[in-house]
Every structure is written in structure tokens, then in C-alpha cells.
Amino acid sequence: MDIARAFTFVMEDERWIVKVGMGAVVTLFSFLIFPIFLLLGYSVAVTRNVSQQKELPLPEWTEDIGKLFMDGFYVGVAQLAYTLPFWLITCIAVVATVGLGAAGSGSETAASVAAGVSTLTFVLLGCLSILFVIALFFLSPAIIVQYVRTNEFAACFRIAEVIAIARENMGPILIVALVSFGASFAISLVTGFLQIIPCIGTIIGLVIGVMAGPYLSMSIGHLYGQIAAGISGKKMAGGY
Known about the structure:
Blueprint: H1 3-8, H2 16-28, H3 34-51, H4 65-81, H5 84-103, H6 108-150, H7 159-168, H8 170-194, H9 200-231
């Protein structure tokens, strides 16, 4: 994967500062929920463009805001839907534990058995939780790739295809995650260091922190686009 390209292509857009700045403004209002889907949708748009070898110019925020929102909404809902089995199992485990607790209130033996079963239930639930987290770690990016390749919301639920994308691209997906973590860590170090400088450092650190989010989202979108392009057989120059 061309990691360096993913972090430099943004600045080749003539209006990159404006576009990243608008992303920062949207980020500031993400507590309203609606902007979260816009941010996700913008990253999806970048992924789609890169997968089609049209990485520049960067998508416009105001050109089709409805499309950005719907892209983010569809992907977000699909990713959430994949977590439903975990929540269903959790609810069943909680209900079963409460039921066992009520049933075991009659005698010490029953209470002891109920406590043992409850402990075993939560241990199993913990193990399942770890498995679900690992699975979602790979499935969430695969959902994005599947969506941009098909432009169909329903395609996100063709589970066999999504799993195949995740399985065949575990290495690249892991690389993207490590790159994202490394970049976020570096940004936190820079902003933390700037806090040492009174007033000006705090302001600069705040600006960098707010601007870094959308920039990193664009870069990650580019990396996902490289994965999608690779699946489609469209080799990026020097890329995946």
C-alpha cells in the first residue's frame, strides 16, 4: 500500500485547506449526530474516488451534501447492524443470569449453582465479546469497501462477500489500523507538547487537533480506496 501517498495527496488539491477546514467545522458539531454521518460519508466519498482512480480533486462538501449524508448513514447503519448479534447474546445472558438469580434464592445449594452458572455465562460472554471485537475490526472496513464497490446499501448485508473481503485483505486492513493509530498518537504528542507553550501553543494545538481529524479521515479513506481498487483489479501507481 502507498501509505505516503495517502497522506500527501490531500495537499495537492488547490482548495485543500478550505475542505479540511470545513471538515473541522463539521467535526465541532459532531455532538449533534447528523454531522457524524457527514464525516463518515465524506471519507466514503474519498474511498470511492480513489477506488475509481479519481483521487483528485477532493470531494466538495456543499456539492451534494445529501449524498454525503446518505453514504455515511448507510455505512454507519450497516456497521451497527453487524453488532446486533453481540447485543442479542448479551441481552439473553443478562436475562438468563437474572432468572437464575431469582430461581436460586430459595436455598443455598440452588444459589450456589446459580452463582456458578452466572459466572460461567459472563466468562463465555467475555470470550465472545473479544471474538466480536476482532471480527468487527476487520468487517467494518470491509463494509465500506463493499459499499463503494457496489453503491448499494443492500450489498453491505451480503455477508459472504463482506467476510471474503475482510479475509482476503486482513493484512492491508491491519496496516490501515496501525497507520491510523500511529498518526493519532503522533498528533496527540504534538498537541500535548504545544500545551507547554502558554496561550499561543494552546491555540495552535487546538487548531491542529481539530484540523487533524478530517485530514486523517481523508487519508484513511484513500487507503481504503486502495484496497477497493486492488479488489477491482485497478492497480494504483505504486499502490496496493
